[in-house]
Amino acid sequence: MSQSAASSAISASPRVHALLRRLHAASASQEKALSKTWFYFKRLVAFYLFSTPWGAAADDHMRDKFVALEEDKCHFMYLLARSAGALNIVEAGTSFGVSTIYLALASVSGKVVATEKEPSKAARAREHWAEAGDEVTGVIELREGDLLETLKRDDMPEQVDFLLLDIWTPMALPTLKIIKPRLKTGGIVLADNTSMARPMYHEYLDYIQDPANGFKTTEVPYSGGLQMSVYLPEQSI
Q1: Which of 10, 83, 172, 202 is deepest in the core (most CB within 10 A)?
Q2: Who's near 133: CB < 8 A, 6+ residues apart?
Q3: Origin, by domain of life (predicted)?
Q4: Which of these, 55, 61, 101, lies nearest to 81 by C-alpha position?
């Protein structure tokens, strides 16, 4: 995506735009590597044929990988959050903190609660946010460890306006269920790679597509799929 396209979508300083271009380029280079494609292929086959869970070997492989939302998805997410006036945002799966920068820029005077279980990735994310500077650093709170525990703490925002799910797919539904009691009416939930990994998302998709659970949902046709859901419980019947 061209620099002018990024500049027209995102309100940020030239320093932050330069940082994001660099991080997206590094992430895209990793994603194009044959070893990364082979890893994803093996993971999908193992899950489809044997229901093999995510394990230590997968963690080791991903420890130095960005696993970042693509730039076009980040622009969509940023504009969506800005248009919704999202103040309190939760990001499940921070990795190197690329998408977190967009969420912090979108939140402006609000708060982004970011989660990451891998300490080395959390450290890299903090480095990137420090490089971005005070446009984002005062907005982000990073919670390290198991997000199924860190998101249950009493010091969570009382109301959550926006939730990004960019994590190992079986974690998507448990995370949503933790946040749902705080999710405002009209709150937005984005889940990444819902087309590419649809069988692995089946519990999550079954849940949000059930009208009794209060969500209106659609898939945005980005690469890999991006499920956008809006919490409208009063319209659930």
Answers
A1: 172
A2: 13, 15, 16
A3: Eukaryota
A4: 101
pLDDT of residue 61: 45
- Residue-wise pLDDT for 202-225, tens only, equals 999 999 999 999 999 999 999 999
Cβ neighbours, 10 Å, residue 80: 16
Token pair for 57: 């070997």
Beta 160-165 vs 88-92: how paired, if at all?
parallel
Cβ atoms within 10 Å of 35's Cβ, excluding its own: 9
CATH of the domain at 218: 3.40.50.150
User: Which band of pLDDT confidence, cut at 50, 70 and 90, is reported for residue 68?
Assistant: confident
| Residue 205: φ, ψ to 5° | -65, -40
> How many folded domains does the chain comprise?
1
Residues 120 and 225: their CA atoms lie apart, in Å, by 28
pLDDT digits (tens, 9 = 90+) for 80-105: 999 999 999 999 999 999 999 999 99
